[in-house]
């Protein structure tokens, strides 16, 4: 029996909703609703130093102004420490993770460069200290096989984590749980089985699949949408002062995001209002038309 589609949108409240985030929200929403599925909303407010006061509230208001409707209550990662701690302790107990005292400088000096920077050389894995506050925790990546999956937009993806990434951090030195662990625990906890998100997270997906396997959690299907780039060729982000979308002109932004995702309306069915946009967009949605993003 086929499981009901459960998707989600998970912004971080580090600033107002910008066009790149709108693209991710729209793609995930249309794919979920087109398949008669649920669309959940999760606020990834796990990293207080990066958050902006009031940003979570502003994002929710903007989504409402644009006509998004989510199922159930919003999940806040800041209230989920107990769930993350439980799974972290499980990984430590089964020797899938270890405490690490190495500084960034020490790692950089001893490592080779991989896909996303220095690859941890395994220093503390050989003789790990006892976990305690002030130490990071890393996941063991010494698995002989590549982690592979088929992305609904980008096609086949494979990554040798030990070679390309190394033992990656799942709890930081400051005690904050890393995104890779939190997203895996939350997707499983919410029953998410379809993840539609930006292609900046494509290379993170094999790490998340590895965590899912070690924790005995299900792996969703993934689809990674093209990135919106600024004039400098870099991904738009709240940190790079990307301009927020204008809630007073929702149709203009929705149409731009829809076109960016490779979707088109027939000449005989052009929406003139946001209320007309949504049923037409849902009817016409085809993820096969979404362009593949280049990953820098």
UniProtKB/TrEMBL annotation:
GO molecular function: ATP binding; glutamate-tRNA ligase activity; zinc ion binding
Enzyme Commission (EC) number: 6.1.1.-
Cofactor note: Binds 1 zinc ion per subunit.
Signal sequence bounds: none
InterPro entries xref list: Glu-Q_tRNA(Asp)_Synthase, Glu/Gln-tRNA-synth, Glu/Gln-tRNA-synth_Ib_cat-dom, GluQ/Sye, Rossmann-like_a/b/a_fold
Keywords associated with the record: Aminoacyl-tRNA synthetase, ATP-binding, Ligase, Metal-binding, Nucleotide-binding, Protein biosynthesis, Zinc
One Pfam family this sequence matches: tRNA-synt_1c
Amino acids binding Zn(2+): 100, 102, 120, 124
Coiled-coil region: none
Motif stretch ('HIGH' region): 11-21
GO cellular component: cytosol
Binding positions (L-glutamate): 8-12, 44, 179, 197
Superkingdom as given in the UniProt entry: Bacteria
Cofactor: Zn(2+)
Binding site for ATP: 238
Motif window: 'KMSKS' region: 235-239
SUPFAM superfamilies attached to this UniProt entry: Nucleotidylyl transferase (SSF52374)
UniProt keyword Nucleotide-binding, yes or no: yes
Domain Glutamyl/glutaminyl-tRNA synthetase class Ib catalytic: start-end pairs: 8-242
GO BP terms: glutamyl-tRNA aminoacylation; tRNA modification
Similarity comment: Belongs to the class-I aminoacyl-tRNA synthetase family. GluQ subfamily.
HAMAP family, sorted: Glu_Q_tRNA_synth
Physiological role: Catalyzes the tRNA-independent activation of glutamate in presence of ATP and the subsequent transfer of glutamate onto a tRNA(Asp). Glutamate is transferred on the 2-amino-5-(4,5-dihydroxy-2-cyclopenten-1-yl) moiety of the queuosine in the wobble position of the QUC anticodon.
Name under which the protein is recorded: Glutamyl-Q tRNA(Asp) synthetase
Gene source species: Candidatus Sedimenticola endophacoides
Primary gene name: gluQ
């Amino acid at each position: 029996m086929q499981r009901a589609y459960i998707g989600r949108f998970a912004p971080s409240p580090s600033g107002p909703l910008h066009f790149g985030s709108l693209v991710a929200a729209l793609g995930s929403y249309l794919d979920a609703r087109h398949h008669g599925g649920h669309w959940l909303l999760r606020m990834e407010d796990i990293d207080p130093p990066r958050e902006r006061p009031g940003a979570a509230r502003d994002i929710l208001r903007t989504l409402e102004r644009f006509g998004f409707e989510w199922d159930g209550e919003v999940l806040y990662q800041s209230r989920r420490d107990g769930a993350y701690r439980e799974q972290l302790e499980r990984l430590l107990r089964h020797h899938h993770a270890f405490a690490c005292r190495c500084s960034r400088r020490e790692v950089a000096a001893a490592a080779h460069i991989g896909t996303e920077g220095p690859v941890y050389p395994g220093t503390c894995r050989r003789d790990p200290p006892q976990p305690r506050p002030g130490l990071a925790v890393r996941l063991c990546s010494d698995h002989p096989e590549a982690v592979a999956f088929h992305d609904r937009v980008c096609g086949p993806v494979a990554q040798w984590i030990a070679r390309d990434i190394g033992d990656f951090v799942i709890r930081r030195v400051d005690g904050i749980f890393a995104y890779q662990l939190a997203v895996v625990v939350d997707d499983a906890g919410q029953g998410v089985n379809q993840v539609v998100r930006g292609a900046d997270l494509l290379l993170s997906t094999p790490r998340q699949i590895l965590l899912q396997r070690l924790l005995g959690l299900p792996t969703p299907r993934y689809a990674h949408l093209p990135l919106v780039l600024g004039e400098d060729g870099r991904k738009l982000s709240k940190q790079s002062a990307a301009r927020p979308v204008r809630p007073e002109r929702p149709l203009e932004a929705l149409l731009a995001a829809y076109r960016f995702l490779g979707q088109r309306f027939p000449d005989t069915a052009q929406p003139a209002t946001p209320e007309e946009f949504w049923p037409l967009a849902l009817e016409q949605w085809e993820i096969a038309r979404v362009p593949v993003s280049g990953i820098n």
